[in-house]
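Input chain follows. Return structure tokens only.
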Amino acid sequence: MTVHDDILSSAAAALFEGRLDDPFALLGPHASKGGTLVRTFQPGAEKVELVTRKKAAKRGTMEEVGPGLFVGKLGRKGDYALRVTWPGGVQQVTEDPYSFGTVLSDYDLHLFAEGRHLELAKVFGAQPTEMDGVPGVAFSVWAPNARRVSVVGEFNTWDGRRHPMRLRHSAGVWELFIPRLAAGELYKFEVAGQDGNVVQKADPLARATEVPPGTASIVAPKPDFTWSDDDWMAGRAARHAPDAPISVYEVHAGSWMADEDGNPLDWRGMADKLVSYVKEMGFTHVELLPIMEHPFGGSWGYQPLSQFAPSARFGDPSDFAFFVDSCHQAGIGVILDWVPAHFPTDAHGLAHFDGTHLYEHADPKEGFHQDWNTLIYNLGRQEVSGFLLASAIWWLEAFHIDGLRVDAVASMLYRDYSREAGEWVPNVHGGRENLESVAFLKAMNEAVAECCPGAITVAEESTAWPGVTAPVSEGGLGFNYKWNMGWMHDTLQYIEHDPVHRKWHHGELTFPMVYAYSEKYVLPISHDEVVHGKGSLWNKMPGDRWRKFANLRAYLAFMWTHPGKKLLFMGCELGMETEWNHDAPLPWHLLEQSEHAAVQRLLRDLNRLYADEPPLHARDCNPGGFQWIVGDDAQNSVFSFVRWGEGGEPMVVALNMTPTPLHDYRMGLPRAGKWSEVLNTDAQDYGGGNIGNSGTVEAQEEGMHDQPASASLTLPPLGALVLSPTGD
């Protein structure tokens, strides 16, 4: 036996045992004396013949020289295909995957290795394409430390020996073109890891997946959705500006509403029901809890594994595109929750992907979230940060998403987040700041601004990290907006106090104005505030049923007139009496009761007032847009303030946070003359007692509270008034 024969014998043994790391050295066409020698591995086949590609005319026979390993010789150069005869006489004609060249360009690999390939989803993963005029699917996956990687699926009976991949050593990427496969095929990557384990992994770049609990990836077609939202895309930047009204309806897609069979609505159903509802309610945007594919529904999507695939629970990617397009045609923006902070430990996912800690930090002090039992991305690896950057851009470009709300930013910024001393690793300077995450977030925000004009990013950040919404060029993180968690905490804490005690907690409602303009803020009453025993928003309100509804109405009015963009979780507008249950649709039957329908009506009117009246939104992020009138009347639990428009036009808000009506309450106003009571949360239409000022207030030129005029008002119990000058 020659050295060459010995090498071939060793390679064949590795093939049979699933250890072959260089399949192109053994399989496919190879020059030899007297012609081209072809080897193919077809375990279980009865016969394999060499044929022409176009007409399948016979070019030669093949001999089985080992279990499933066939060898034959082409009489002359040229393309060829394989005609495989399976038991029962079934014949299959296919091109040889090992007769094709490389899949990825050197430039693609270079960009990927540097973390600068923002179009990964268009190149990597599973891409339907043609090579040498032959249709098929080009597969590629990053697994630099793997001993062998194969494509497996129903097309090869999930046998990892059948389609081992070529390693492109420069980037640690494995690739293979498999002819005659098409969109719709289920597949995974079988990875023989450095640790000796062989695991079938879902494709990190999959653009479609099986419906959970299935875990396979699906070859997705090239995106070809026909969009009808050119006008929206051209004008959305103005809708996202700090002077624009932004009112967001936060939705968990799986539990918003059920269809006639009791199942959650799919994307097409939501395009019908949800879009019309959001438009009727006057919200400007819908924000979806993470819809990236995730194995555990109870995570609400916050433990995603497929950063490029919409969850198959609600339809395929084209259905999701249809939903977004429907929103845009109705004048509604779409924001997605996006989770670059952590990922779950499921065996078919990113964890220990190639037998090493590839996507996650190896040290659990850096790589494991104790709060969520999840793994933390190693953003210090350029390939990992590039993977997530490409995900962000994919959603914004491929699906015309208008914004990303980035989850758990605080956990990314601090190395000691939710850790005790000794449980975290300092940065290179000995500090607690996560420098790699900071660099990633800045790069992400810069990429979004450059690649996706008009799209926004919103940070869920609960600390006082400076400059979250400041431009990167000025040392900030570069987000457009930040959730105001301090406002949420302080105001909910205040509203939960019994009114008799509120005078001792007056500052909890006024203090948020101290920092209201430190960032560009969104005021959030999100899903996090109505689960895990926290009770519904309605049930946070103290007192009997009447007081709960009145408190809720006043609180919503305060929120909608306070500086900052708005976000409300689904169901809060119904006055839900129980906390959110992700396994059941919202209790829409509550609207059969007048009190609950009245809350919904108020919220709809608040949205329209906020959108229609520039003083309530144009200077949300400008300290010149707010002025206290009464901020220190703790004894009466009264609050009053002016919202100023850009042209100096005022609107006045007054709240009485006690259950006792206040008659003849004299209060300063910015100008004398008639003022219209444009909203009263105690109005009969909203379920109140109709205590107020009969629609108008007359202000006299009698200065008070640093205002040039004043008026005597009736402040309804646990109520809010919004006043606007009539010009008379």
